[in-house]
Amino acid sequence: MINLAEKEREIEIARARLHLLVEQKNGDFSNKDVAEQSIYLDKLIVAYELANGRRPSKN
């Protein structure tokens, strides 16, 4: 099982990749690659929150 520190590292890597993609796509948040990376990052964050004993908020 992945511990919280490993999940945090995975989140940071995904966040950095998302930031780079947004720059490469000139801020086009609707770009397919950007959207896919954003969804992936969201899923990592939800998994982290659940593993940390927190319920993700419903927005």
Automatic annotation (TrEMBL):
InterPro entries xref list: HLH_DNA-bd_sf, Spo0E-like, Spo0E-like_sf
Domain of life: Bacteria
GO terms for biological process, alphabetical: regulation of sporulation
SUPFAM superfamilies: BAS1536-like
Any one GO MF annotation of this record: protein dimerization activity
Stored Gene3D superfamilies: Helix-loop-helix DNA-binding domain
Name of the protein: Spo0E like sporulation regulatory protein
Originating organism: Sporomusa malonica
